[in-house]
Amino acid sequence: MIAEIVLRESIWQTNKIFDYVVPEELLEKIRVGQYVRVPFGKGNRPNVALVLSLKETSDSKVKLKSIESLVEEEPVLNSEQLELLKFVVKRYACTYGSAMHQMVPALVTKRTGRSQLMVSLSDPEKAKEALESEAVGSIQQIRALEWLLDVDEMTLSDIMQELSISRSPIDTLAKNGLVNIRSVRISAEELAEKEKRKEELELVTPPEVTLNEEQALAVKEVVEAKGKQEFLLFGVTGSGKTEVYLQITKQILKEGGSVLYLVPEISLTPQTVARIRSHFPNRIAVLHSRMTAKERYDSWKMIQKGEVQIVVGARSAVFAPVQNLKLIILDEEHDSSYKADTLLRYSARDVARFRAGRAGIKLLLGSATPSVETFYAAKHGYMKLLTLKNRAVSGAVLPHVEIVDMQKERDTHNQSIFSRKLYTAMKEALSKGEQVMLLLNRRGFSQNVYCTSCRSMIRCPDCDVPMTLHTKTMGRHKLLICHYCGKVIPSPQTCPYCTSEYLAVRGDGIQKLEDWTLQDFPDAKVLRMDQDTTSYRGAHEKIINQFKNHEADILVGTQMIAKGHDFPKVSVVGILGADSVLWQSDYRARERAFQLLAQISGRAGRGDVPGRVFIQTVSPDQEIYAYAATQDYEKFFESEIKYREQLSYPPFKAIGGILITHEDEQACSVQATMVANTLREMAVNLGDDMMILGPCPAGIPKLMNRYRYQIVVRAKTKGLLSDGFTKLQQSYAGYGFSISTDIDAMW
Ligand code: ADP
Ligand code: ZN
Ligand code: ZN
Predict the structure, then answer these.
(1) Helix boundaries (H) for 92-184
(2) Which ligand is nearest to the CA of 206?
(3) Pairwise CA distance, residues 115 & 642, whole Å
(4) How far is the CA of 463 from the centre of ligand 3 (A)?
(5) Are strands 384-388 and 229-235 parallel, antiparallel or unpaired?
(6) C-alpha span between 386 and 404 (Å, rounded)
(7) Is 279 in the pocket of ligand 1 (CB under 6 A)?
(8) Which pLDDT tens digit goes with each residue over 169-218?
(9) 589 sits in which H/E element
(10) Among 31, 81, 228, 601, which residue's Cβ finds the most Cβ atoms within 10 Å?
């Protein structure tokens, strides 16, 4: 018997299907979807490979090698997932290897004993001193120390995962005597106990709700649909979409099926997860990004064995090996976190659609502000549109939104970060014991250091992006941090470019907003939620719960606070610096701006307190603010879809991107030109309506000491881009430079 296999560590040169002989002793055990060990290449190095299919004979002209052994008897992928793997490879122009890394947890091949490397501070006082004295040279090291000050000790793999860092900053800390690394054993019982405690903590009694008419109709439509079908649940914030998902899930479970329930980001939606868990205790597995490799592997195994019927997770859970899957739910389907922008640039929405279609099951997307592509599909009958027009809690109405012209405020001598209207509304709300949320859009609003003599912004020497000033980070003073590579330097006294002493701070950072708030509302308790306050495990949950329990009056934060939290006591929402979303150089800027404004507005007035929203802008005439003010998604859509059609943007055409990086700027530019020329030839040969723009330096022209060039490709469909990009990768395999491609580029 012959097995067709693909290598787990495949690169483009080896991204092929190879024939291997199945030896006598494995004939009984070999299965499609198993991981096996095979000798590969001249040196017959052992490699892990996946069995794609089995056949009797091979057409190969060369002498075949034999499979050496099985990694595990149980297949790592079932037939449905093998289809998914092939889809990912074709669709995203990636190697089998990168698709496998996405779909199979790393521990499947690396499981050894249960001994773990544990990291702890050698002396907390010494760590604090080091933090104060600026002796620690990178943000990664600083975060690790801070984290350990919080939790005492942690496994090495946990730290690396939680902070998304490599091992080297920890090793540096160990070398400098700040932390200890030792090996310990953790028993299975201990792990099980930990899980149980978590379950108990999160369990609350679900409230009894009777669905309203609109909700009941939506549930009925989905439950009664036969076979494969796609739905869009379009309902304003607070209209009870989650309740609809829960009821449908109940029905599916009753009929013996399983449900995959995707949410944008688990750490940002602890309330939703707790709510789902409370309805289905012991039948649910949660997958999230802040899990350790071991936790992820355990959950994956549990799901694969069919021990749970509901899988809740973020983006990557779309690949979970759910048994007897009958429905995929994508909550907040418009959310950009469903799109991966790391190595494999997939969209969970896209994968979910393929998976549901292939398996002949139902797909339910939901949002108050659907993506333009999705709403277009619903309007044109590709999916069924289910609408919830009203807020679910009786009496709760949509908030009143006001646009405030900040230029006028300045002209009339108000230099404060708060407009008079917002200030007054906040005072009123606080005096009545209500809560306030303030959102500052992060992009373009960080604080930077600027030289007033030579007019340069201080930039990261490695990345060429402006460095961000942190005035109060970790109790130390005035640090400049590069948010792309993590470099930290003390804020200089003189300009590094012209040595002038006239340095100024530019921009309103979130910390500055906090300072203003504390100054103007001295009696209010203020909580801040941004990257800096949420780097440790459980931080989001803590802040959200504190605010929900009314332990603070005002929550200031970045986009993070806009996501689906339910705070019944919030009556005033202020959006500061709304314009910066619109200034992004992306055709989706208007869509994002509308979504952000509508979502954050939706946080106001969810309970019995009516809500008021203030959007502060310097360009109040922008059409988008008028749509946001009336919260009229359909009007926004009508205008947006015309604009997209005129300019041939998605959903009318696909827009892909290619990124070429190199240490040397000249080499980078030359290679990018070569790639662009290859694409142009390809387009001519294919006779395709494909347009190649560029190359030109990317939006961030230099990152971590590598120069970056981009090429934009427009084509009729994503499929054409996939095919083109695959051919491109194949023709440059072995050239020694890396090309990353994206069939749905975002900037
Ligand atoms: P969405 O997901 O659309 O934002 P939720 O499902 O979170 O809305 O519902 C908003 C609030 O309304 C929640 O507090 C929820 O418990 C409540 N709710 C939902 N449906 C009903 C209903 N039929 N009757 C009463 N309250 C409801
Ligand atoms: Zn200068
Ligand atoms: Zn940098």
Answers:
(1) 96-103, 107-110, 124-132, 139-151, 156-162, 168-175
(2) 1
(3) 59
(4) 4
(5) parallel
(6) 34
(7) no
(8) 899 999 988 898 887 665 444 555 555 555 555 556 667 788 999 999 99
(9) helix 589-601
(10) 601
Q: What six digits make up the tokens of 481?
A: 């941090």
Q: Is residue 104 within 8 Å of 77, Cβ to Cβ? A: yes
Give, in degrees to the nearest 5, the angle at Cα 387 between 385 and 393: 155
pLDDT at 583: 62
pLDDT digits (tens, 9 = 90+) for 535-587: 555 677 788 888 989 999 999 988 777 775 678 888 999 998 777 766 665 78
For residue 235, give the ligand 1 atom closest to its CA: 3
3-state secondary structure 423-452: HHHHHHHHHCCCEEEEEECCCCCCCEEEEC
Q: Are 588 and 339 in contact (CB under 8 A)?
A: no
Q: How far apart are CA 650 and CA 54, in angstroms?
A: 41
Structure tokens at 745: 């580029």
DSSP-assigned beta bridge partners for residue 692:
713
211 Cβ closer than 6 Å to some ligand 1 atom? yes
Residue that is written with structure tokens 């030839």 in the block? 681
| Rounded distance between C-alpha atoms, residue 408 and residue 533, angstroms | 34
Q: Answer yes or no: is the C-beta of 366 below 6 A from any ligand 1 atom.
A: no
Q: Say which residues have a Cβ less than 8 Å from residue 375's Cβ, sequence separation at least 6.
A: 232, 234, 633, 637
Residue 576: which of 434, 445, 466, 398 has the closest Cα? 445
Residues facing residue 195 across a β-bridge:
none
Q: Is 209 in the pocket of ligand 1 (CB under 6 A)?
A: yes
> Cα 349 to chain center, whole Å?
12
- Identify which ligand lies nearest to the alpha carbon of 484: 3
Cβ(238) to ligand 1 under 6 A? yes
**Is there a contact between 262 and 352 (Cβ–Cβ < 8 Å)?**
yes
- Ligand number, closest to the Cα atom of 563: 1
